[in-house]
What does this fold into?
Amino acid sequence: MTKTPLLYIGTYTRRGSQGIYVARFNTETGEIGEVSLAAEASNPSFLALHPSQPVLYAANEMGEGDGQVSAFAIDAASGALEFINQQPTHGSAPCHLTADATASLVISTNYSSGSVAVMPIDPNGRLKPSSQLVQHEGSSINPHRQQGPHAHSVTLDPTNTYAYVCDLGMDKVMIYQMDLGEGKLLPNPAQNWARVPAGSGPRHFAFTPDQRFAYAVNELDSTMNGFAFDPADGSLKDVCRLPTLPADFSGTSHCADVHVHPSGRFLYGSNRGHDSIAVYAIDEKTGELTSLGQTLTGGRTPRNFGIDPTGRWLLAANQDTDDIFVFAIDQKSGSLTPTGHSANVPMPVCLTFFG
It folds into this structure.
């Protein structure tokens, strides 16, 4: 592992942003190097890496059925990105994507149209046309946000067998088996979905490294749901549910992102409005969470955050103040301490490390 991996920054291309930005991140000091434009792109709001080649994929979050996924070749020396190709997602506002561990598929979620697009990958990392579009059907109780399905993220389990799609509009985590050869998502026979309480709005999902537990952060009611994961059949069983906000907070806030620390001992979730990172300790035997409080992110609207490859640093991307702040992670307690290191990037909404 290099001491200065590349940090790719996805953005919304408004307020001066031109696309995907890049900087070197010093894993010894926690400093972000000079930020430069890696590639021009339209609303590259979420980024994902090819599992074995220097290729970066971006979800181009466009509306009215104009969603796209783009592939870029990474120049590991300079960080520059060279456009490879682009494929339509056949939906509106693709906001999340991932590549499976065998480099067979890229899977992307269309938020506005509530669907999931599956795209095969050729041996060079190039995207092929979609092999499947899975359309969700359903709604929930929030009259403004849950009148229909809103597929918000897709997360693959550590065995690369199952795909978990958080659907904010349906209050469900949909569970699919992946057919890598055919490029399809199939309903999981043991359990088709895990439901969260009505009005929760599940957004992002994360597994523990030991494959025993998984956590969904809920955007609409600012809560965190914990599940026990059975790798034998892909099923999820409720373990816990905790708030992400302090008890005395009375303003408006919506959750965004969730990550498990590489040690498997700590969980983090972002609050947009309270503008903080919620910190939890994970009981490694039961998966239960203990709240360790919240740490302010230094800016407004932390839509996304990342933990560096060493597990020493957490970087919070504040969308509405055009900045990224770095926090040191205490390896014993999981607590976050501001380092004073930061970078300015217009409308940062996704952080991805390479190298």
Q: What stands out?
A: DSSP finds no helices and 29 strands in the chain. The chain has a mean pLDDT of 98.
